[in-house]
Amino acid sequence: MPTPSSAHRVLIYRLGSLGDTIVALPALHQIERSFPQAQRRLLTNFPVHAKAPAAAAVLGSSGLIHDYMRYTAGTRNPLELLQLAWQIRRFRPDLLVYLMPLRQARLVRRDLAFFRIACGIGNIVGAAESLVSTHRQDPLTGRYEQESHRLAQLVATLGDAQPDQPASWDLRLTQDERQRAAEALAPLGTQPFFVCGPGTKMQAKDWGAENWRTLLALLSRHYPGHGLALVGAAEDADAAHTAAAEWQGPVVQLCGRLSPRQTAAVIERGRLFLGPDSGPMHLAAAVGTPAVIAFSARGLPGVWFPVGPRHQVIYHQTSCFGCGLETCTVQQRRCLLSITPQQMLDACQRVLGSHS
């Protein structure tokens, strides 16, 4: 394996969305510590019709990654794979860090054959660990190992990624990003505020705008004198508008107006974040803002929970938990829709206290 002084080019393989990138932050910080002088390039998937990957929207100018290489997830196109191999050979990485989500061993072996044979990469970190990697279950709590901790184990040969330390989640937000957040929040004045991101692109994670509306109405009555900031993508604006319809204080609608990093700077200033299992939930965890989450049981309990001790996750472990469905029709999202607004309010009060 290259030493910190000898590795000049490091290729990191990590696919996924905003949340997938955020939970990899401790591992990315460790790679930077191990190879501070190396050119670090991320091989990742790019959204359709976009010039930059989702990872770039999260990492920005943090310096953790210097450049990005495009990959079409699941592609079997020989020409595209040959072009990718040529691009990787042209980059001439001294080391590949394999940070892929949990997958079948045969797929890991296929990936490794491509990188070793087609791309000529001899040194790979995280490969052997991925072949036997699982989300271990704590028999006392029933929760499974968080994805960030699993990724930390993949880079354990480089050092301790310390996923439980706040510094390992540092997004390195810039002064300009924080200033943009302050400008967006100006209509709320100086009063404290909550942040809500009710939207999700996945039906199985959607708690419903009316549930959010009921919860925010309750929260507004219990905590007068608070503002509300609504965050998410532009297509979440209608759901957010419905959710905030009975809020009694000032509201600022920011859906589609801010980048993910500017959104993180907004959440950083809030007292509490509320939402489903989503990218903004992970942004809240990264900046240290407590989150109250209506969590679908499509995944195993714990794997994608926000990292940190102050969060409140409401997860109803129904008999069909861990289904992995993106659209739930047979069970009608009973795991998620059995969560009541009162349960969510109680969770908020556990974080905030029962009085303003």
Tell me about this structure.
This protein has 356 residues and is of the alpha/beta class. It has 14 helices and 11 strands. The strands form 2 sheets. Strands 8-7-6-9-10-11 form a 6-stranded parallel beta sheet, sandwiched between helices. A 5-stranded parallel beta sheet has the order 3-2-1-4-5. α9 links the parallel β6 and β7 (227-230). The longest helix is centred in the first third of the chain and has 14 residues, at 78-91. The radius of gyration is 21 Å and the shape is globular. The model has no long low-confidence stretch (mean pLDDT 93).
List the helices and strands and how they pair.
Elements: E1 9-13, H1 18-22, H2 25-34, E2 39-45, H3 54-59, E3 67-71, H4 78-91, E4 95-98, H5 105-118, E5 124-125, H6 127-132, H7 147-154, H8 175-184, E6 193-196, H9 209-222, E7 227-230, H10 237-243, E8 251-253, H11 260-269, E9 273-276, H12 279-287, E10 291-295, E11 312-315, H13 334-337, H14 341-352
Parallel strand pairs: 1-2, 1-4, 2-3, 4-5, 6-7, 6-9, 7-8, 9-10, 10-11
Helix pairs in contact: 8-11, 9-10, 9-14, 11-12
